[in-house]
Here is the input.
Amino acid sequence: MMSHVRDIAACTQEPKREFLRSFATAQIQATRDIVGGLTGPGYPVTNTTAMRPWFARFFSNGGGAYIGVDSHRPAEYMTQYAWYLDAHAESLGERGNPKHDRRVLTTSRGDLSKDWRHARPDYQSFYRWHQDHDVDVTWIDVARANALRQEYGIGNADVCLWKNFAVMFEPDTSTGITKLGMWFPGDSQRENTTYEKISEFVTKVLAEAIPLEKVAPGLDLVNRELAVEWINYVEPEAREEGGMARFLLETLDGKRSVFDAAAGIACDSVFLMRHDFQVFPNEVDGLLAQQALEYAESQDVNLHFMSILWEDLPDQLPGNLRFDALLCLGNSLCLVDDAAGRLQCLKTFRESLVGDGLLVIDERNFQAILDNARSINFDPVKEFSATTQGDVMYRGQKIRGYPAHVDKGARMVHWRFFRNVPAISDRGELDDRRLRGSDLVLHAFSHGELFSLLRNAGFTEIDVYADLVQIQARATSMPDRNRIGDADFITYVARKSKLGEAAASRPGRTETPGAPGA
Here is the structure.
């Protein structure tokens, strides 16, 4: 390197010579410090954005797939390390957009929930970046990740692994300084680890990690492609003509203010606003909310969206609002993945209503799906008519959804979407036509389970509908399954009452939901 400095000096004249020689010498010394730190005890970087050109080179020269194990929260990633995702995206483009890169987050569930609540747009942007770039993003609990870090000499560092080398960066939260280190295959142990140990650590983490959408809140509805196509799945005009218009107008007769808790693209909200209802649409998914605004504009309706988590009702409602009616349609409650959470949501719905308010909520006829799980899993085109024909809630023909896998034991249905133009004729076409993104994982209510939850939440007067046709008014128990028949959707109109309020608050009151397969 010093020969290069002499060359610079020889090619320049005074007074430039001394300045350029000292400048080049300082640069070379800085490079020596970087190299010595990367291959020694670590090189301190005080400004994380200054690392961008480094990681651009790491991605360019790493070789093979990239695997990252990272302790940062999704929103934190977007606000502090967006440059890192930019460098990653550039690398993917240079490598022809492979689908083998992976990132594992090592955080607590609590941190994910806080992230979702307080920084939702950045949180969802992080997840959708991975969807858009075909990079798997998974999760492992921080305690387990830290145990593996200690086992393999990783300390508390985050890891970037390529074929040609590994990079670890260890942030010091007290000083704001991050130390970078590099390990190469075949090198002797340094700082308690080797490239081979780091590779083993990453392999173990990958084996134990689970998809982020299975553990994190707010990630299990739609990706950008499905959000854009959602209108073609719902088909609002056909939905109104198929009975929804009549049902809503008759059910909400005499009511004025309506909270649409799971608005989606807001087709029901728009319909009700056109019929002079005061509607408050709510949607926590930013992509669907954007599509809703576009749909409403096309219908000459102005929407003002809320984005409130159901469990935060009614506390987060502005001005102590309460409503004459609350809608939770489109089989939405089944996306809440635990029984206690579903009951809590129903209670908050009830608390958001005025004294004689209505909750209108529905579910798919999951019991029929569970009863026919084997045949539906074998051929969902032939054995589940709604796959191709649509149903009372989702009447679109261009985009269809279907139960891709029914887990009867766990009472879970994996719902998948596909393009149906031209119309498919057999199950062999489903995979070729499927939309990108993860399946929706739905809790499959057993017969009477949701009815019992409504009673437990304090709703004592419940009308029951099968495909929007009333089969029993003021039901005190779930109608027999034969009365539901082969309807695709079961809808409940549940009334808030003083009697229900007393019953819901009575200590020790429980009602057992219907057993699986009942």
In short: The chain is about 40% helix and 20% strand. Residues 505-518 have pLDDT under 50 and may be disordered.
